[in-house]
Write a structure and sequence with these properties.
Chains A, B: GO terms for molecular function: DNA binding; DNA-binding transcription factor activity. Two copies of one chain form a homodimer. Chain A has about 140 residues and is mainly α. The first copy, chain A, has six helices and two strands, in the order ααααββαα. Chain A binds a DNA duplex (30 and 30 nucleotides) through helix 4.
DNA sequence: TCGATGTCATTGCTGTTGCAACGACATTAA
DNA sequence: TTAATGTCGTTGCAACAGCAATGACATCGA
């Protein structure tokens, strides 16, 4: 029997993920000209307060280099403020500016709306998808 | 209320997808030194018989350029044979060589095993995930 | 037949990604 | 203190993705 890629779970998962990721990326690209890493950094900072690059790297599944570069761009754009940590001068303290917070306010509404549409589209399977994703994020590695 | 990326569906989906995609990619990388596009082309050819670049591009969510380059590399490696279409000389006819079929035989076992592990890991949510992915691949765009 | 338009595969180009190295700094042990 | 080791953020670099342009060929209409 030959192998059927169409029904192969990793493949299907990947296709679905990039598809909806792109749909959503188009929204915040239109709203604020953000890239994916920029969006993630911004979204994380909205919750975390002042935080280091390493911290974001660990939580948001972005390489350190991307966090660093995204943060620089966001700083240029006036959305993020970068300052030094008091005790440990290796660390950077990243936090949203007023402008950054204002943007995240708008973006979080867009995101919430997008997610609501998605859940509606999923119908009864939404809850199960949620649980499945939780499982897939649990294991080692 | 601030926005929580951790529970945002598109984000979670993306993280899960890249995570398991990498896990699996490590397997066929170890087995045959393949990249993602190469794997997809190979897997598709295993089912389809002789087929054009355009065809694969349409079915496998890969840019034409990547299909083309992957096919060239696979040809170099002796896994794929590239010939011209009889009627339409713009078209290329891609098909597996004996070596390619042999490799896909091994790979499809690895893939099937991997999927089985994944489904086991998912437990009762596996079926629902499947249905959810089907829904997510249905819509326009 | 001949031109206009369209399609196919390939190639170039540019921005993005992820890894590896680097320099600055911190921490620990002697 | 000083040396050794470890961690942090940044940068360099090479591989890769996606887009646009190209050239070869096909098709359609006059």
């Amino acid at each position: 029997m030959s192998f059927d890629l169409e029904s192969f779970l990793p493949y299907r998962l990947n296709v679905a993920a990039t598809r909806i990721s792109r749909r959503f990326a188009a929204l915040y690209e239109a709203e604020a000209g953000l890239t994916v890493p920029e969006w993630r950094v911004l979204a994380h900072l909205d919750r975390s307060g002042a935080v280091s690059v390493r911290d974001i790297h660990a939580r948001v599944h972005l390489d350190k280099s991307m966090v660093s570069r995204a943060a620089s761009r966001l700083e240029q754009a006036g959305l993020v403020q970068k300052s030094g940590h008091d005790r440990d001068r290796r660390l950077v303290a990243l936090e949203l500016t007023g402008q950054g917070r204002a943007l995240m306010h708008r973006l979080s509404q867009i995101a919430t709306g997008f997610q609501a549409d998605l859940i509606a589209e999923l119908g009864p399977e939404a809850g199960a998808l949620d649980r499945a994703l939780t499982r897939l994020s649990g294991g080692k590695d």
